[in-house]
Amino acid sequence: MNKPMPELIQEQTEQFNAWVSKMQAHTEYVLDQHLPAETVVPTRLHEAMRYSALGGGKRVRALLSYAVGEFCHAKLEKLDAPAAAVELIHAFSLVHDDMPCMDDDDLRRGKPSTHKQYGEALALLVGDALQSLAFQLISQDKALKNGQKIKMLHVLALASGSRGMAGGQAIDLESMGIPLSREELEQMHIHKTGALIRAAALMGAYATDTPNQDKVKAVDHFAKAIGLAFQVVDDILDTEADTATLGKTAGKDAKDNKSTYVTTLGLSAAKELANELHANAMAALSFYGREADLLRHLASFITQRSF
Q: Residues 17-64: pLDDT tens digits?
């Protein structure tokens, strides 16, 4: 006998939440195994690297790699290196973003930012070392074929550099105090936030030995929509939530006179945009049945975090 729709939805939600918790813990384990121990020289640098990369965050980018990998039928052992690598790149970006010369934030994930805990000079080195380790993990992974490694390294390097995350951050700095249009804001965040999310998805697809090109295209469209939606939702949460809820300084972008989706569009329109981008992500998967349900749940997890 078929279950009533509310019960079925509840069951699927519980299964997804269990998967999220499992994969977050797995990601933490993989990172813990690959980050140098605090006893390895230089001990303080390694301690600070572990402080910055472990013990916090939703691991959205790793979850996306694992979910796409499952959608494309990749083996778990082939997904660990790219999932950990994209989280290390993300952690490196947060360490540098928080520094006084950038966004100047004293809080990250509910605890002192790396530069507040270890000083600015060491924080700079922490970011550099986390970035290097990300590429090392993929290049030395024994589960991946050489062709897969080359694709992943290319995608991750492109997403991290001047045509990706670093470029987006540069645009952000140059735009301080300058009102941006929706199109300009979108261009900035396609690089600053969206590029790494897209890379996480594509690396999950490339972890399979023979990627289905139709699925790769669907995943790419899905990730582009989700990448922008992620930033829109972040801007909304930054407006509505308090510091304790966010784990970082709430409302800081507005105080620093930076353009956000909320300041540019207004709160109501920003929420409408987030919902529109969520719908676009779902449309990218419309050709697929239950095999794409994990990605659909993940889209909601990312775009409907609190509204």
A: 999 999 999 999 999 999 999 999 999 999 999 999 998 789 999 999
**Phi-psi region at 281: left, alpha or beta (left = phi > 0; alpha = psi -120 to 50):** alpha
Determine whether 264 is exposed, middle or buried from the number of CB atoms within 10 Å of its CB (0-12, 13-18, 19+): middle
Tokens describing residue 167: 């470029």
**Model pLDDT for residues 212-260, shown as the tens digit of each residue:** 999 999 999 999 999 999 999 999 998 886 554 555 565 555 555 788 9
144 Cβ neighbours under 8 A, 6+ residues apart: 78, 81, 138, 152, 207
At 253, list the tokens: 């972008």
Q: DSSP letters of 229-282?
A: HHHHHHHHHHHHS-HHHHTS-TTHHHHTT---HHHHH-HHHHHHHHHHHHHHHH
Are the C-beta atoms of residues 114 and 123 closer than 8 Å to each other? Answer: yes
Per the DSSP assignment, residues forming a β-bridge with 108 are 111
The pTM (predicted TM-score) of the whole model is: 0.92
**C-alpha distances in angstroms, 266 versus 182, 235, 251?**
11, 11, 14
Specify the length of the chain in residues: 307
Residue 107, beta-bridge partner list: 112
